[in-house]
Amino acid sequence: MIDAGLAACAPAVAPATLARVIQVESGGRPLAINVNKGPRVGAPANPAVAAATARYWIARGHSVDLGLMQVNSRNLARLGFTIEQLVDPCANVL
Questions:
Q1: Fewer Cβ neighbours under 10 Å: the N or C end of the chain?
Q2: In whole angstroms, how far apart are CA 79 and each of 5, 53, 92?
Q3: Is the pLDDT of residue 1 over 70?
Q4: 51, 30 in Cβ contact below 8 A?
């Protein structure tokens, strides 16, 4: 199950569903960064490093999956999010 505080961030989603998606997508790592068709990225030390890492690979033409739900960087504009917002666990599960 997930933390009650995180469940409060996405009240329209069943907590069990949210927990399962998070487990499958990021293994529960809030700063998870996946560079699609690129190198494996180690665990960023903090949100600022995670955002900088994502920006680095996006600038080089890669799409990057971000945070708990692994939201793809190509969806940022359409969803109205910034990279910094998506490395915040609460914003990432909206």
A1: N
A2: 22, 20, 11
A3: no
A4: no
Nearest to 71 by CA among 60, 59, 84: 84
Q: 92: which strand partners? A: none
Residues, the chain, total? 94
Sheet holding 64-66, edge to edge: 33-35, 64-66, 71-72
Residue type, 76: L
Q: Which residues contact 47 (CB under 8 A, 6 or more apart)?
A: 31, 84, 87, 88
What does the pLDDT look like over 14-68, one tens digit per residue? 999 999 999 999 999 999 999 999 999 888 999 999 999 999 999 999 999 999 9
Q: Which two tokens stand for residue 20?
A: 């399962």
* Residues in Cβ contact with 81 at an 8 Å cutoff, skipping those fewer than 6 apart: 71, 91
Cα end-to-end distance, the chain, whole Å: 17
In DSSP terms, which residues pair with 90 in a beta bridge?
A: none
